[in-house]
Structures are given as C-alpha cells and as structure tokens.
Specification:
Number of domains: 2
Distance between the termini: 80 Å
CATH superfamily of the largest domain: Outer membrane protein assembly factor BamC
Radius of gyration: 30 Å
Strand order of the largest sheet: 1-2-6-5-4-3
CATH architecture of the largest domain: 2-Layer Sandwich
Structural class: alpha+beta
CATH class of the largest domain: Alpha Beta
CATH topology of the largest domain: TATA-Binding Protein
C-alpha cells in the first residue's frame, strides 16, 4: 500500500508539534500576571548613619500626596520623561567659549582624564609644572621668561626687553553639563619669582593671549585623544554639580544654577535651543524667556483652526531666572493668557535634561 505524502519529510509530526510549541510560548508570556505589583507592600524608608547627611537622598520628582479617594490632592500631575542621556554629548569635543569676560576651553571629558593631559601640554610646550593643587584644580608653570619657545608661545618680548617675570596658571574644573570639564588659563606677571602657588584671579587683562593658548591646548588634547590617562590626584577636584533640580515637599520645584547671572542666562538659552523648544521672545532685564511648550495635540488643534499653514509659535509658558541665596533659580509657569493644560513641570524637567 502506498502512503500519501506531502512531499516534505516529517510534515505530519511538525503539524502536530506546532500547536504545542505555541501553547508553551503563550503560557510563558501572555498568561503571566502583570499587576501583582499593585498589592506589593511598601518598603522601609532608607536610613543613613548618625554621622552622615541625608540631604542628597531625596526624590527628584516626589509623588503627590493622594486623597482617601485615590485622586491627587494637587490636581493633575504630569509624569516627567526620563532624562535624555544623549544630551550630554557635545557636538565638538574641544570648544573655546567666552561669556562676560570669562574664557575657557570646554572638553567633553571628566576632570580626572583632563588633568594629566593639561600637565603634559605644559611640559611639552616648555612651560613646565612648578606648583599644583589638585583639590583646587590648579597647575602653575615655571617662569616663562627662561625659555625662548615658551616666550614665543605666550607672546612675550625678548628676554632682555622683558621686565619682571611671567608664569602661566591653569584651572581645571567640572563643566556645567555632566561629564564635561572647563579649562581656564591665566598669564601672571610678577616682579620676582613666587615661592608658592598663587591664588587664582577671577578676572584677566590678557584674554587675547589666553584665548590663543586655549586654542593651542585644544589642538594638543585632540591630537592625544588615543593616549588618554587618568589621574588619581584629580579625584580631589571639587566635582559638586553646578546645576541641581530641587524638589522639596510642599514647595514648587526649581532648578538651581550655581553660576553668575550672565553665564546662567547663556546656559538656559542654549538648553532651550537644543531642546527644540520654540523661543518666542525674551526680556533680559527681567530674566524671562517666553516659549511655546504646548503639547503636540494642542499644536495640531491650533493648526486645524487656521485651515492652512502651521501657525506661528505662541508665548504659552514663561521660563524665569531669579537671583536667590547666592545662586540663580530657574522656575517655569504657564502664561496667564494661555488656557491649555498646565505642562510647567514637564518644561522644567526637559530643561534640566539639557542643562545638566
């Protein structure tokens, strides 16, 4: 007797086995309960030792208190988006920037890796390293006058025409944005050679020369990208963030910027632009940016109302900067004339992503 065949060996067993595999797969995926977490008990509060501070252990986005009926006591609450981890990447790794008389080289790297590279630059340019203080992030050169190549680098006249002595200081500090470093340089003129590390001056009258030196340093660091090293001494550099999101119970959250007013203004403007938030207008004297932070649904509704091209951005939200307790506080609020859903907390969260 001949057996009927499909032309594919083993077809009949596979046809029987397929439903079994499908049921096993469904049992492992779709039949697993997904809401058990709702009945999970709350954990114990985090405890710290008696000699430790709990100031930094606080929720960045505290959950609003719920009423007995389960509704939020403060009305609607917009869940913030997770931080944009790609926003920390700079378009260029070495950029000379200048704001309000301050010039620095911005490096897309942590201070611990920048410190030995700056020291190597000073050595290879015949500036030398005579004094250093990693805790303060300071490096101080030898006397520049004693080396012809060093004099040419910093733009000094011939040795016999120079009066006094000149040296170079480098200051390495964490940048405003995470995982970045800012390097500043100062040319110091003294009557005689100092016998210790000089205090860092906040202002400089040699900015053109220092800007050229920063550009040369940037080229040097870029050429040595494949030979990076890490300095254990640089672990002592103060790495406290200059941008913090402060959210205390019972208070409106805000962003604290430990920067001067001009630098804070520039950083916030950059964050608004990089976040692609339409900037409608600004008032520098009042410290206010007027932006359009409507939801996509609100923008689409406005577009349908116009029956044509997309309407111009509207000033629906205010980003306000105010000096307080030695820092700049950034707050967001809905524009008085805007009647849409309040998305102020979402705006604050998005700006923080691009500021820090």
């Amino acid at each position: 007797m001949e057996r009927a065949s499909s032309g594919v060996p083993g077809w009949a067993p596979l046809r029987v086995l397929a439903p079994v595999v499908l049921l096993a797969t469904l049992a492992g995926c779709t039949l697993t309960p997904t809401d058990d977490y709702q009945d999970a008990p709350a954990g114990e509060p985090l405890k710290v030792g008696p000699d430790m501070s709990s100031g930094r252990i606080q929720p960045a986005f505290p959950i609003p208190t719920a009423t007995a009926g389960g509704a939020l006591s403060d009305g609607e609450f917009e869940l913030p988006r997770p931080p944009d981890m790609t926003s920390e990447i700079l378009e260029e790794n070495y950029v000379v920037q200048e704001v309000s008389g301050q010039t620095w080289l911005l490096v897309n790297e942590v201070p611990g890796r920048v410190w030995p590279a700056v020291s190597a630059w000073m050595t290879e340019r015949n500036l030398g390293v005579n004094e250093e203080n990693p805790a303060a992030g300071l490096l101080q050169s030898d006397i520049v006058n004693y080396s012809r190549s060093a004099r040419d680098l910093v733009g000094l006249p011939d040795e016999e025409q120079a009066s006094g002595v000149t040296l170079l200081q480098a200051r390495i500090s964490p940048g405003v944005r995470r995982k970045t470093t800012e390097i500043q340089l100062r040319l110091r003129e003294r009557a005689t050679a100092p016998d210790s590390l000089l205090p860092w001056p906040t202002q400089s009258d040699r900015r053109p020369q220092e800007k050229n030196l920063l550009a040369d340093l940037g080229d040097f660091l870029e050429a040595r990208e494949d030979t990076k090293s890490y300095s254990r001494a640089a672990l002592n550099i103060d790495s406290r963030p200059q941008v913090k999101l402060v959210a205390r119970e019972g208070e409106a959250p805000y962003i604290r910027l430990d920067l001067d007013d001009d630098r804070a203004w520039v950083e916030v403007k950059r964050a608004i632009e990089e976040a692609d938030i339409p900037l409608v207008d600004f008032d520098r004297s009042a410290g206010t940016f007027y932006v359009d932070f409507r939801s996509e649904e609100a923008r689409e509704a406005a577009w349908w109302n116009w029956f044509g091209d997309a309407p111009e951005p509207e000033a629906t939200y205010l980003v306000e900067l105010d000096q307080s307790d030695g820092a700049v506080h950034l707050t967001t609020r809905q524009a008085p004339e805007y009647e849409g859903n309040d998305r102020s907390q979402g705006l604050l969260s998005e700006l923080f992503d691009y500021l820090y």
